[in-house]
Amino acid sequence: MNFRAVGTIYHFELARAWRTLLQSLVSPVISTSLYFVVFGAAIGSRIQEVEGVSYGAFIVPGLIMLMLLTQSVSNASFGIFFPKFTGTIYEVLSAPVSYLEIVLGYVGAAATKSLILGLIILVTASFFVPLRIDHPFWMLLFLALTALTFSLLGFIIGIWAEGFEKLQLVPLLIITPLTFLGGSFYSIDMLPPVWQTVTLFNPVVYLVSGFRWSFYGISDVSVGASLLMILVFLGLCLALVGWIFKTGYNIKP
Amino acid sequence: MSHDIADATATETRPAERAHTLQATPSVIAVQGLTKRYASGFEALKRIDLDIQHGEIFALLGPNGAGKTTLISIICGLVNASDGQVRVNGHDIVTDYRAARAQIGLVPQELTSDAFATVWNTVSFSRGLFGKRADSAHIERVLRSLSLWDKRRNKMITLSGGMKRRVLIAKALAHEPQILFLDEPTAGVDVELRRDMWDVVRSLRDQGVTVILTTHYIEEAEEMADRIGVINDGEIVLVEEKAALMRQLGRKQLRLDLQTPLASIPETLAHYPLSLADDGHVLVYTYAASPDEHSTPASISALLNDIEAAGVRFKDLHTEQSSLEEIFVNLVRKDA
Question: Which pLDDT does position B294 carry in this prediction?
């Protein structure tokens, strides 16, 4: 294992985030605050408590998930798309590093960034609403697993994308809708019965539900199902990344 | 051929492997039957065989689209081969890619760089990527040798094209490679910088680094190379020592400007390979340029005597030697 190479990629990527601190950290924090103003204060004031939790506090886990998912995908996809786009990927491909090491470096950095971001949003949220975390270990585990899984997805998108349009396409058309419809801002009990069933096909429901459970002990689906779902998704992403490197798809003709 | 290199590698291989290495790899790079076929069916490389020897500067010459970059890209790990094998100091580039790639530095043709990284950071990044311990003294040496030391804190985006090219060379040298690939190193580079780069390449060779450069500037190959390989249409047309290539294929011409034009070559001179040019104003004698063909000077003096005897008068004479460029054009044309 070429740990030094993994560390080099990892630090270089984090340094890139540091250079672009404004869009990396500040803008998600600002948009989260806006969500709190709109959903928490304006709309939330007219909504009753959800399963014993104030609406403002109820949406915190969903909001963090929303940011975590979109940021993981965009961080990781940009991280690998950019070297591909500018051509600097040649160096990584010509270096004595394995595919696993490349993935560890890029995905590790992207996941770290979104993990830090998630924690910053959590802190930001605590200024707006009273927070309670019943299961801190599980909270961190869900946070880490989700950041990792969706950074892997982002990596895949970054390899797949041949232009900036494609790079935006998946987050815009899939990730954001799935997250909004994934119970970030509501409990699925609030939906009509038909939609309750439909929504069970949305993987994000399981992530949000499990994550919310780690805060307040309430969930839409069982915690086991949530964990299983994220592990299945992680496995799928790993398999896809493995296939990409095995075939050289879009990266090594 | 290059046992010293094989010995050097032996320090990191087991005895059994070492025996195998010594036997199997007389060259620093051994390419066998290398083929690259794209999905479209286009064959960029057609069963290439090539051996690069330790410590030489090897110029790979060929027109655009001949397969130069594809060949380099496969050896360096950027492109998958369809068929064939490449060994770098005995290490297969697929099954033993770590050992193979660790020895290679690559300077790509295109000026790619992380625009907002500083020179120092991007060069240090390259060293780390190759798994080498950080060594600021080495990075400093490399940057100084390429006149980049003053620019070390500059962001890549602020550098000129020539400076970026130097940074790419510095990045390739950051991990102290034994083999350096330069893909069109002086494309779009001004004359002064080109001379500087040639000096850098020569000094690397003097340090024992094997250098493989691709170029379509004949001047570059003629100036730099120990050996020249010509690639055309995915095939190696020829590999030869530069001097031998010039000797074998280079022709010299003795041109005599005549006082009065000739309609035809006189009977008494018919046994010489003579021809007339410029409507009979110039008499051309073509002979091999090789200095070790003893007959040449003798035959020139005999020729001059016979010309004198035939009553042909000339007012001036000069000789011309064909350049590598002409040799190259002839080769590629013949092949096509």
Answer: 47
Residue ranges per structural domain of chain B: 54-81+101-246, 250-335
- CATH tag, B250-335: 3.30.70
pLDDT average, residue stretch B117-134: 93
Q: Which pLDDT score is estimated for B16?
A: 41
Strands, E, within chain B: which ranges? Answer: 29-37, 43-52, 57-61, 83-88, 91-92, 104-107, 179-183, 210-215, 227-232, 235-241, 251-258, 274-277, 282-288, 314-321
Q: Are the beta carbons of B101 and A91 separated by less than 8 Å?
A: no
**Average pLDDT of B294-319?**
81
pLDDT digits (tens, 9 = 90+) for B160-198: 888 898 999 999 999 999 999 999 887 777 788 788 888
- Looking at the complex, does the CB of residue B12 fall below 8 Å from at least one CB of chain A? no
The structure tokens listed for B264 are: 């035809």
**Which helix (H) or strand (E) element contains residue A241?**
helix A223-247
Q: Tell me how far the alpha carbon of residue B199 is from its chain's centroid.
A: 15
- Residue, of B64 and A141, whose pLDDT is higher: A141
Look at A15 and B121 and tell me if their CB atoms are within 8 Å.
yes
**Superfamily classification of domain B54-81+101-246:** P-loop containing nucleotide triphosphate hydrolases (3.40.50.300)
